[in-house]
Amino acid sequence: MSSVNQLLDSTPLLWKGRQPGYGQRALASGHSKLDAQLPGRGWPLGAMTELICRNPGLGEFRLLFRVLADIGEQGQWVILVDPPWIPYPATLQGHGLLLERLLLVRTRGGRESLWACEQALRNGRGGAVLAWPEQASFTRLRRLQVAAESSAKLAFLFRPEAAGRESSPAALRLQLEPDDRRGTLVRILKCRGNRPSEPIRIPQSFSAYAKQNPQTGCHAPLAENSINTAVAGHPLSTTAAGPP
What we know:
The chain has 244 residues and is α/β, with parallel strands linked by helices. Helix content is 23%, strand content 24%.
């Protein structure tokens, strides 16, 4: 066994499970119980994080409020690629997010969406990239992970429940489930430098998405131009993207 360990130790580019976190560089999430379970005490920089949930609106966006507010205050962009619904500007603003530092990118989906994510990660201005890809192969996810590593940025992918049963190169994978006490249960499925822990309960009293259907509890899509009229004087920037 010692010879195997020596061989592993002689390969500096190989990450080993017994090592501490991925570079230990992180930004606090604002949720003490969650930070306590993460090797760097926060969201890992230069790595991809997957937030897996059955339906949008379970608190997945709310988990990021603190770190996105911090990034905006540093003068960096927060880039949203193909969100399923328009985030509610008043809620974002009320939690410290600078709307003038939020950039909404719309693509035609598929590979275009992942291409936009990769370009955003490689762009020098962005501090965090959030994306909602419909589908993503392991190869494309690996490209995003490499792009995140090279840029030392925050990268968040919101993925459907089925993705939790698939392999992924993401450094951190969290599964979100509704809690009976109006909260969100966060399960750590994968975490470099740490073992999965017991579920973490995050209180949840509102959603970051606008227009909830009272009969279904789901959030209805907003018209594309509503993003510019929701908060007078503080529009989110909107752009379209696609590979050349």
